[in-house]
Amino acid sequence: MAGGADSDPDGMITAINVTPLVDIILVLLIIFMLTANIIMSPAIEVELPQASTGEGTEPTTLALTLTKEGKLYLNGQETDEPRLIAYIPEVVAADPKVQAIIAADKEVSHGAVIHLIDVIRQKGIFKFALNIDPAPVVIDTK
To answer: Which of 53, 99, 113, 141 supports an S-S bond with 127, CB 3.0-4.6 Å?
Structure first.
């Protein structure tokens, strides 16, 4: 009998059958495991240069990423320079003190990073930060 009751319908339930509960939990676990890969946003592969003197940055609405393949990403979405130029005035109009965070792969040329900085400065964003990978601080004890 379900619930561990005797044939007496008015009797007390003295045991609980947990098998259906375990079945439901396992099915939910499988569903979560399968959907986790779909929900997780794909990351942009960038190997940042290391620096031991990096500081924290303010939250921003303009995150730019340059990959070693030469692709440009705006807030995690692939874009190109004309679309970036069209998007920046909207951001500046919403927040004149917006800060751009630039993450560039360490294999990207210095000229490409400078060009990107020049583009955002021409469109009115004067505060920017360069994203780095923090390096361990080495202290000379001589």
So the answer is: 99
Same structural domain for residues 11 and 65? no
74: its two tokens: 């705006």
The count of C-alpha atoms lying within 13 angstroms of the C-alpha of 104, restricted to the half-sphere facing its C-beta, is 17
Q: Are residues 34 and 54 in the same domain?
A: no
d(CA 123, CA 62): 13
Instruction: Supply the range of the domain harboring residue 15.
Output: 2-39
92 three-class SS: helix
Question: For residue 107, is it within any domain?
Answer: yes
**Domain-embedded: residue 44:** no
Q: What is the pLDDT of residues 114-137, one digit of tens each?
A: 999 999 999 888 888 888 777 666
Note whether residue 17 is domain-resident: yes
Predicted model pTM: 0.56
45 located within any domain: no
CB 64 within 8 A of CB 78: no
Q: How far apart are CA 133 and CA 128, in angstroms?
A: 17
Q: 32: part of which helix (H) or strand (E)?
A: helix 19-39
